[in-house]
Amino acid sequence: MICEVLESLKVKTATGQREISLGNLIKIDSGKAVTLIKNGKIKPVEAENRIEEMTLAEFKNSTTVLRVYSALLNEEILFSPSIYITFKKGIKKLNLSIYTATELINLFRSGMTTEKDLKIIHEMKKKFNGTLQGGDAFDSQYRIKRS
Question: Where does residue 110 fall: left (phi above 0), alpha (psi -120 to 50 degrees), or beta otherwise?
């Protein structure tokens, strides 16, 4: 069964102990999940709420935060449905880059989705502690367009 982590957990894996933080999705045997669900550590994720089946618009209306390791960026990043959910779940304290659903929608609408684009955008987001806004402020050469 797929469950959302509501409190950080330490679990044993084949490679040793690992901490799973708030908001992550885990696949767990139903028998082992019962106690964790009763203790409020995890909650089952309904099939219609499963993240891998959501559009970005549906993700924007969910409460699930994803923690993802990006091989392209060589670091962990978070995907949050909104700034509100980011604040409510207290994930800013993890000190990772956070992309909201609106930012991801704006990114795809911009068409700037090559590996080079994504690396540059990510570095600028980190450097300026900013958010991605809609619009066409940059041309394909990454220079500000002049009116």
Answer: alpha
